[in-house]
Amino acid sequence: MLLMITSCGFHLRGMTEISFKTISLEGKELSFTKNLKKTLASNKVAIILPTENPELRIELLSEESEKRILSLSGQGLVREFEIFYRVRYRIKTIDRETWSQENIIETRRDFTFSDSNLIGKEEEERQLNESMRNEAITNLFNQIQHTNK
């Protein structure tokens, strides 16, 4: 069975190699910075200081999380929330004199809420927030892949 799967060209989808071998991460330390560094390192991208002339510089400007009420019950109790996670950043390649304009990555999720299951819903919200940070890393990684040297 394994031979049939591999002989047809099937392979697990994952991050693909990017054209930059050296990157510097500048600006603010965001909640996803540690995982971003792991992702870059696992894809054989060296994270170096800006003074070492990296091929790509990423300046992490800010992140924000937001939570909004999406719907209420007939009694006026919250039934659904919508949560957002935004990252603002800009990039600069070695051959450019100026930074790119500010880019924004935004992810969102919604989830039902129940006062009777408060602990479970808090855990669900925590997991959704972690999922959004991971999605932001994937989106940033994909945008880096499409950046021209």
Task: Explain what the structure shows.
- It is a single chain.
- With 149 residues, this protein is of the alpha/beta class.
- The chain contains 3 helices and 5 strands.
- It has helices at 2-7, 33-42, 118-145; strands at residues 22-27, 46-47, 56-72, 78-93, 103-112.
- A 5-stranded mixed sheet has the order 2-1-3-4-5, covered by helices on one side.
- The N and C termini lie far apart (42 Å).
Which value, in Å, is the CA radius of gyration?
A: 20 Å
Shape: elongated
Sequence stretches where pLDDT stays below 50 over 5 or more residues: 1-7
Arithmetic mean pLDDT:
87
Fraction of helical residues: 25-40%
Q: What portion of residues belong to β-strands? A: 25-35%
- Main β-sheet, spatial strand arrangement: 2-1-3-4-5
User: Ends: how far apart?
Assistant: 42 Å
Q: Please, how many helices?
A: 3
Which helices and strands occur, and which strands form pairs?
Elements: H1 2-7, E1 22-27, H2 33-42, E2 46-47, E3 56-72, E4 78-93, E5 103-112, H3 118-145
Parallel strand pairs: 1-2, 1-3
Antiparallel strand pairs: 3-4, 4-5
Provide a brief overview of the structure.
The protein has 149 residues and is α/β, with parallel strands linked by helices. It has helices at residues 2-7, 33-42, 118-145; strands at residues 22-27, 46-47, 56-72, 78-93, 103-112. 30% of the residues lie in helices and 34% in strands.
Quickly list its features.
30% helix; disordered N terminus; single chain; alpha/beta; five-stranded mixed β-sheet; elongated; 149 residues
